[in-house]
Structures are given as C-alpha cells and as structure tokens.
Amino acid sequence: MAKIKATCGACFSAVALNADGRIARHGWREVGGRKAGQHGHAWHVGNCFGSGRLPYETTAQTTVDYLDHVVLPASASARREVDRLSARPTLYVEAHMNLWYGRNDPKAIATLVIAPGSEPRRYVRELVCGEVEGLPTWKADFPAYDSLLQSRVRDANGRLSTITEAVAFCAEKIAAWTSAKAA
C-alpha cells in the first residue's frame, strides 16, 4: 500500500503523512558508528521543523512558524555577525595538535587568538587521551589576520545571502497559500 504524501511547510519536500494527517518525522541525519550486528551505536539528530505538523496543503501555519522561529532569528544573527566582523575584532580559531606520533596519538585542543596587528597567541584548552608535560612547538602555520578575516566575512555574507533568499521564499509561499485560500 502506497503511503499518502504531502508537502512539508518548512522544507517543502514531499513527505509521508502519519495516521493523524500530520507530516512524518524526516530531515534527520544519522550520527555515530553503526556496524553489522551492533545496535544502539547510532542516533538521529536534526529533524525537520515541519515534522509532526500539518502539511502545507492544509495550512500555511508551519511556514509562518518556520519563518518566525527559525529563518528570521537566523537572519538577525547573520546580520549581527556581518556587523561584528566589520569592526575588525579579535578572532578565535580552534585547532587540534598531535603531541606524539603513533596509532593512539594524544592530542590537545588549542584556541588561537588572532588580533589585528599582533602575533597569534595559543591557549591549550583541553588535553585528550592522557596528560602531557611540556607541549611541543606549534607546527601549523598561523593564518594571517587579514586573510582569516576576509574568509570569515565571505562566509558570513554568504550565510546572510542564503537566509535572505529563504525569507523571500517563505514569504512567497505564505502569500501564495493565502491568495489560493481567498480564491
């Protein structure tokens, strides 16, 4: 028997309906390690916002809620990040260090602090796989401040552009549903 499908009001994918007429759980990704014969080592994360809600064919409320609770806050956050980067702030980079060579290398997680016009500073935050006395010299090249800032500005502007398109898309879908309902 074929499952009845409808449109999710958040991702606009065709998704199966549950018995109660709501959108089935979808949009997750599986994390963890799964091997043949093992159970309980993998789990699902990141369900779609539209899971468990009424389909778009029934109501545009899921799209309205998605816009209000996900897209617009993400847009405001992306705008704040673009504004923050325009002030040339101190940048932080997380990096991982190998301390020994071998199959089970202990590692340290370090934070690099890179400020305009100064040498990067390194702070070791966490040792993973044992205790180590005296850390070796940092082997990785430090990114130059201007190139790191330029990369982060490009990423932030890209996120803002993508989210701005999502705002327009949701607004179009809400308007289309409202005008179809009125007709």
Output the keywords.
single chain, 183 residues, alpha+beta, 3-stranded antiparallel β-sheet, two-stranded antiparallel ribbon, 21% strand
Protein described:
- This protein is α+β, with helices and mostly antiparallel strands and 183 residues long.
- Among the domains are: 1-35 and 43-57, no CATH class; 91-143, no CATH class.
- Helix content is 35%, strand content 21%.
- It contains two helices and seven strands.
- The strands form three sheets. The chain has a three-stranded antiparallel β-sheet with strand order 5-6-7, covered by helices on one side. A two-stranded antiparallel ribbon has the order 1-2. It has a two-stranded antiparallel ribbon with strand order 3-4.
- Strand 6 and strand 7 (121-128) form a beta hairpin.
- The longest helix is centred in the C-terminal third of the chain and has 38 residues, at 145-182.
- The chain is elongated, with a radius of gyration of 24 Å.
- The two termini are 34 Å apart.
- Mean pLDDT is 79; it is low at 127-140.
Gross morphology is elongated
* Number of discrete helical segments: 2
Rg of Cα set: 24 Å
Strand content bin: 15-25%
Q: Which whole number gives the mean pLDDT?
A: 79
- The oligomeric state of the chains shown is single chain
Distance between the termini: 34 Å
Strand order of the largest sheet: 5-6-7
The main β sheet shows up as: 3 strands, antiparallel
Beta strand count:
7
Helix content: 25-40%
- Strand and helix order: EEEEHEEEH
Sheet/helix structural class = alpha+beta
Low-confidence stretches: 127-140
